[in-house]
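Fill in residues.
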């Protein structure tokens, strides 16, 4: 079953896995060394990330390396972009209010 990309990145452990793999391809064992959880738990997180195409796997001998898929993450960035203008406008308005309060 395909998972939703937003569901996948909602979990902090999966976000941490993405951050690690964005820097370099890693095996599940190498990833598990970064967490205080079992390798099986890390493998479940990897499975979710792979199912929603945020990770791609590559077999190299007996090892499986996971790579970050930036194209899929672009969907998240594109969706968030529609809100960026809204919050930037609000922050700019807040800056003006604070500047006016400072000068009074």
């Amino acid at each position: 079953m395909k998972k939703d990309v937003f569901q996948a990145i909602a979990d902090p452990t999966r976000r941490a896995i993405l951050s690690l793999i964005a820097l370099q391809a890693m095996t599940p064992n190498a990833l598990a060394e970064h967490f205080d959880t079992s390798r099986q738990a890390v493998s479940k997180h990897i499975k979710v990330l792979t199912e929603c195409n945020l990770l791609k796997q590559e077999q190299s001998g007996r090892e499986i390396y996971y790579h970050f898929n930036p194209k899929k993450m672009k969907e998240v960035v594109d969706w968030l972009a529609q809100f960026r203008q809204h919050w930037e406008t609000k922050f700019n308005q807040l800056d003006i209010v604070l500047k006016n309060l400072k000068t009074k």
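The helical segments are 5-9, 12-23, 28-32, 39-51, 70-103.
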